[in-house]
Amino acid sequence: MPKVRYILLRVTLALLLLAAGFAAGQRKLTVYAPQTTYQADVLVREGVDYVGLADLLEPLGRLETRVEGSRLTLVFNGAAAEFQDGHRQYRSSAGKFELSANFLIVDNRGYLPIASVPQMLPRLANLQAEFHAASRRFFVGNTQMHFSAELRHDPARLVLSFPAPVNPTSLIEKNRVRLLFRREPLVNSGPETANYGDAFVQSTTYSESPEGVELDVAVLQPARVTVGDNGRTVTVSAVAQAAAPAAAAPAATSQTPVQAGQPHAERSRPFVILDAAHGGSDNGIELAPGLEEKSVTLALARRLQRELENRGVQVVLTRTADNTLSLDQRAAAANGSHAALLVSIHAAPNGHGVRIYTPMIPARGSAQQTEPAKRGMQPWELAQQPYLQLSARAAEAMAGACTAQGLAVRSSAAPLRPLNNATLASVAVEIAPPQADPKELSAAGYQQKVAAALAAGIASLDGKLEGAQ
Amino acid sequence: MIPRRLQVMIVLLVLAILAMASYLVYLKRKAEAISGAPSGQPISAPLPGPPQQLTLFVASDEDDSLTTTVVSSALPSDAGQRARLALHTLILRYQQKDSPHRLGDGADVHEVYLLDPASAVVNLNAAFADKHQSGVEVEQLSVFSMVRTMKAQLPQLARVRFLVEGKSRVTLAGHVDLSDWIDVGSVVDACRELH
C-alpha cells in the first residue's frame, strides 16, 4: 500500500508540474535583425534558458549544421564552429571559448544558452548583438530604436518622438498613462525614471518585460493619448478642464485599453494567418545550390509579418521555425485561428515576379454534391467553397498592390491545399526571381519589396473580408 | 492424439488454399492477356488510318502560358484511347530538349479510363510524378495543359482524376493537389488568366 501511495503521489506531482508548464506558456525569444524580426522558442533546462541554433541563425544568413554523435559542427555564412553536447567549451575560427552553461543536443538539434549568444555572434559571424534579459529580446546590429521625451506647455503635454512608426497600446488610469510597445525594438537611453515635477506630468518610468516595453507616465490631470506624424510621435496631453469630468470618469473606473494605432489594431483576433510552405523534413524545391524553398518561404513570411504589424495588422504564423506540418495541420491551424485571411507562401526558381493563386474547388458528381447538403455538412475538401468570392477579392487586392510596386504579377485559380480546406478567405503566393537568377530569391531587398507590396494589399482589405471572420 | 475429424478439416483447408492459389494465378494470366502489354513496355503505335487533327495545349514556363498547337495523327475510334494518345503526344513534346516546359525522362501516361462521357481517370506512370519539377506554377501548367488537351478530344468532359501507377497521390510534386477530381470548367476559366 505505501508503494501504491508513493506512485500515486509521484504521478500527481508530475501532472501538476505538467499543468503548471502549460499554464506558464511557451517562452519566446524575440530577435530584431536588420533584415527581419522573428521569434524563437526558448528551451528551459536546469533553470537555464536555451535557444535552438537553427531557430536563431537561419533567418540571419546561410546556415549548415551537422551532428555526429555528441559533436555539432556548424557553418554560418562561411564561418565554422564546433560544439559538444554537455560541454561549455566550443571552438571557432577565432579560437576556443566558453559558454555560460553546457551546450545541448536534443533530437539532433543544437541548443545554446541564451546568455552566451551576445558573446558568440561577434566571434562567429562578426555580428554585434545585445540581449535584454527582462524582455527576452535580442538586437542584432543597430536595430535598437531609441526615443526622446520632451515636456511642452500651452497646452501641457509630453511629446515622445520615435525614429520609425510605432503602434503602442494605451491604458489610461487615474493619475497614470501606460504605453505598451509590444513589437517595437524600443530601448531606453536615459535613466529608467525621469522626474519632471510639472503640474501635469510628474514622471516617466521605463520598464521591460516579456510582453514588451512599458512606459508609465505619472500625471496629475486627466490625460489622453494621440499619435501623429505617421506614428512617429506619441503625445500625452491634458484633457481640457471643461471636458475633464466626462472624459475622466470611465478611465478612472477601470483600465480602458485604447489602441493608438490604425483601425486594424482594435481586433482581438488576428486578421491574417501566414503559412510558410514546407519546413522540417519537407525542404520544398532546391531553388539554387544550398537555397531551399522552406527557408525562403519562412524568411518571406517573417518579413510580411513585420510589414503587416507595422501597418497595425495582427498576424499569426503557422510555423515560426523549421518544423514539419502536414497540409491538414496547416488548414486546421488556419481554421482555428479565427483570422479573416490565409496566405500560403511558396517560392519557385522559374519565371519571374509574383504569382497569386485562389483556390480551385474539386469537381463532384451530381450525387456527391447533393448528399452533404442534405445532411447540412460541408465536406473537408470543399470547405473553401463558401469563401471563394472573398478569396478572389483578397487576391485582387494583393495583385493590385504588387502591380503598383512595379512587380510582375499574375493571378489565377489552382487546385491547392491547404487552401481548399480553409474556412476563410485564402490565397497562395509564389514568388519567383525578379530576373533569371534564383539566388535573388534570398536577397533581402527583393524579399522586402515583395513583402511591402503584399502587406499593402492585405492592409487594404480591412473591412472587406468580414464574412470570413 | 489429434481427433480424426480435425485431421480431415485441416486437409480440406489445405486443399482449398491450393485451389484458390491456382485460381488466382489463372485470373492473373487472364487479366494480363486482356490488358495487352504490361506496364513498363513501350506504348503501342497509333492505329493506321486517315490522319486527323489533334489539338495540344502546350505549356511554357518562360511566360506562364498555354498555347494551342495542332498536329495530324491517325486517331483510334475509342474516346479513351484517343485521349491517351493526345496526352502521350503532349508528353513526348515536353521531353524534347528545347521544350519550354520540361518533363522528366520516361514520363508517360499508362491509360485514360472514361467512367462516363463527363468523367475521366488518367493513370500516369511513376516517372511522370517522381521526376516532375516542384513548384505551384510548373505543376499547374502540366495539369492544365493535360486537362485542356483532353477536353479538346472529349468535349463533354467535366472532371478529371489523376492517378499515379493506379494509386491516388496527394500532390503532383509537392504543390498541386491530385487527391481529388479536377473540375474541367474551373481549369478552362483559370486558363483565361494565363498568357
Give the topology:
The complex is a heterodimer of chains A (about 475) and B (about 200).
Chain A: H1 2-24, E1 28-32, E2 37-45, E3 48-52, H2 53-57, E4 63-68, E5 71-76, E6 79-84, E7 89-92, E8 95-98, E9 104-106, E10 109-113, H3 117-125, E11 129-132, E12 137-140, E13 145-146, E14 148-152, E15 157-161, E16 169-173, E17 176-181, E18 186-187, E19 193-195, E20 201-209, E21 212-219, E22 223-228, E23 233-238, H4 244-253, E24 256-259, E25 272-276, E26 286-288, E27 291-292, H5 293-310, E28 315-317, H6 327-337, E29 341-347, E30 353-359, H7 366-375, H8 388-404, E31 409-414, E32 425-432, H9 444-459
Parallel strand pairs in A: 1-12, 13-18, 25-28, 25-29, 29-32, 30-31
Antiparallel strand pairs in A: 1-2, 2-3, 3-10, 4-5, 5-6, 6-7, 7-8, 9-10, 11-12, 14-15, 15-23, 16-17, 16-24, 17-21, 19-20, 20-21, 22-23, 26-27, 30-32
Chain B: H1 4-35, E1 51-60, E2 65-74, H2 79-94, E3 109-116, E4 119-124, H3 126-130, H4 136-153, E5 159-164, E6 182-183, H5 184-191
Parallel strand pairs in B: 4-5
Antiparallel strand pairs in B: 1-2, 3-4, 5-6
Helix pairs in contact in B: 2-4, 4-5
Model description:
The complex is a heterodimer of chains A (469) and B (195). Chain A is of the alpha+beta class and 469 residues long. Chain A folds into three domains: 26-140, 2-Layer Sandwich (Copper Amine Oxidase, Chain A, domain 1); 145-261, Immunoglobulin-like; 272-360 and 378-462, Aminopeptidase. Helices cover 25% and strands 35% of the residues of chain A. Chain A is globular. The interface between A and B is medium-sized, with 32 and 35 residues.
Overall outline of chain B: elongated
Give the % helix of chain B. Answer: 40-55%
Just name the CATH architecture of the largest domain in chain A.
Answer: 3-Layer(aba) Sandwich
Strand order of the largest sheet of chain B: 3-4-5-6
Proportion of residues in helical segments of chain A: 25-40%
Question: How many structural domains can be distinguished in the coordinates of chain B?
Answer: 1
DSSP summary, beta strand count of chain A? 32
Q: In order across it, which strands form the biggest sheet of chain A?
A: 9-10-3-2-1-12-11
* Largest interface, Cβ cutoff 8 Å: A-B, 32 and 35 residues
CATH topology heading of the largest domain in chain A: Aminopeptidase
Compute the number of strand runs of chain B: 6
Q: What structural class results from the helix and strand content of chain B?
A: alpha+beta
Under the CATH scheme, which class of the largest domain in chain A?
Alpha Beta
Largest sheet of chain B: 4 strands, mixed
Report the mean per-residue pLDDT of chain A as an integer: 81
Alpha-carbon distance between the two ends of chain A: 56 Å
Element order of chain B: H for helix, E for strand? HEEHEEHHEEH
CATH superfamily of the largest domain in chain A: Zn-dependent exopeptidases
Uncertain residue segments of chain A: 19-24, 241-267
